[in-house]
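Problem: given the chain below (185 residues), write out its structure.
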Amino acid sequence: MNQDYQNEIDSQDEEIEIEAIGIEVDAHPIELYKLFKIANLVSGGGEAKHVIDEGYVAVNGELETRKRRKMYDGDFFEFNQEYYVVVCDAPVTEVETPQEKAEKKLKKEQASRQKKKGAKSNATKAKVSGPKSTGRKAADKQRREQINVLSQSAKAQSSNKNHKGNPSSEKTRDPKSGRNSIDFF
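Solution.
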């Protein structure tokens, strides 16, 4: 029995050379299902996740069912009796730990709170100077006032022309249609 155990240890220490297809990536770690898409082993991410979940993939010699397993330079996986290896020249980009994520979230919340406080103080300053409505109704009201002013000035100008005593400026009506005649210059 001791001898069998010794043989197992010796067989584990042996290095096995495997020919693998290299998959070059720009950055690592990269998720396993994304490697399937990059290598065109599947038609989409959903199919890749399904294949991994069903247990058709072995990573570094062990069965893998995690779809988002992080793969680094030199890691290999087996699929459809073919071996694939991850090849990347770039250094490892840091993976955020849950604690780092929580710290970033806290900083963002504090920054947004400060912005809200600044916005509230600006809003109170605006209220002090006088309420301003910036809506559709206010724009319509301003437009109506401008039209009213323009129409009044146009009426005043036309009444001044009529008072000059220019008889040709008065329009004559056509007896048949009742329409005003058109004067060209």
